[in-house]
Amino acid sequence: MNNFPIPYKVMAFAAALLFLSVASMPYGYYNFVRIVVCGCAGINCYRLLNAGDKSAWPWIWVVVAILFNPIAPIHMTKEVWMAIDAACGVLFGYAAYRAYQGHTAPAPLSPPETPLAKAAKEFDSRLRAQGYEIKSEKDSLPTNRLRATFVSRKRVEKDQKN
């Protein structure tokens, strides 16, 4: 999962650059910020996607890399860039904090468990308690509940004997 680790100091440096971007700086400074932020965001995105991360974080880093792309810059007003710089500074600061704490990736952005998902888990546990076996994880998803196939208790016992 940690293919191209970005040290927390580099992430904190990018966050500091972004927070300084809110002030009035020379144009060359903003070009430097674009290069650093786009590079860090691109590496973070690549590292997370290569590790098989299914959360929203890789796509957040893609958006940041596109916004700060130095090759084909996106032009907006100073006020809009100030808000984007501050928001991305918070994002990089959070990533730096998580890296400092020893985590390889930010915490996943997963929605809270819905009542339907809780009911599905409860249903699965009842079936397992009765001796049924779920063939795959896809079969336990609420959307696939009607298509789920189970092996009867007798079949499970027969397979265990062989």
DSSP helix count?
Answer: 6
Question: Beta-strand level of the residues, as a percent range?
Answer: under 5%
Structural class: mainly alpha
Q: Indicate the overall shape.
A: elongated
> What is the H/E string?
HHHHHEEH
Overall strand count: 2
Low-confidence stretches: 143-151
Spatial order of strands in the largest sheet: 1-2
Helix content: 55-70%
Distance between the terminal alpha carbons, to the nearest Å? 39 Å
- Write down the overall mean pLDDT: 77
Largest sheet: 2 strands, antiparallel
What's the alpha carbon Rg, rounded to whole Å?
23 Å
The tally of domains stands at: 2
In short:
The chain folds into 2 domains: 93 residues, no CATH class; 47 residues, no CATH class.
Name its key features.
two-stranded antiparallel ribbon; mainly alpha; 6 helices; elongated; 2 domains; 162 residues
Detail the topology: elements first, then pairings.
Elements: H1 8-20, H2 27-50, H3 57-67, H4 78-100, H5 115-129, E1 133-134, E2 150-151, H6 153-161
Antiparallel strand pairs: 1-2
Helix pairs in contact: 1-2, 1-4, 2-3
What would your notes on this structure say?
This protein is mainly α. The chain has 2 domains: 8-100, no CATH class; 115-161, no CATH class. It contains 6 helices and 2 strands, in the order H-H-H-H-H-E-E-H. It has helices at residues 8-20, 27-50, 57-67, 78-100, 115-129, 153-161; strands at residues 133-134, 150-151. A two-stranded antiparallel sheet has the order 1-2. The longest helix is centred in the first third of the chain and has 24 residues, at 27-50. The protein is elongated, with a radius of gyration of 23 Å. It starts with 7 loop residues before the first helix and ends with a helix.
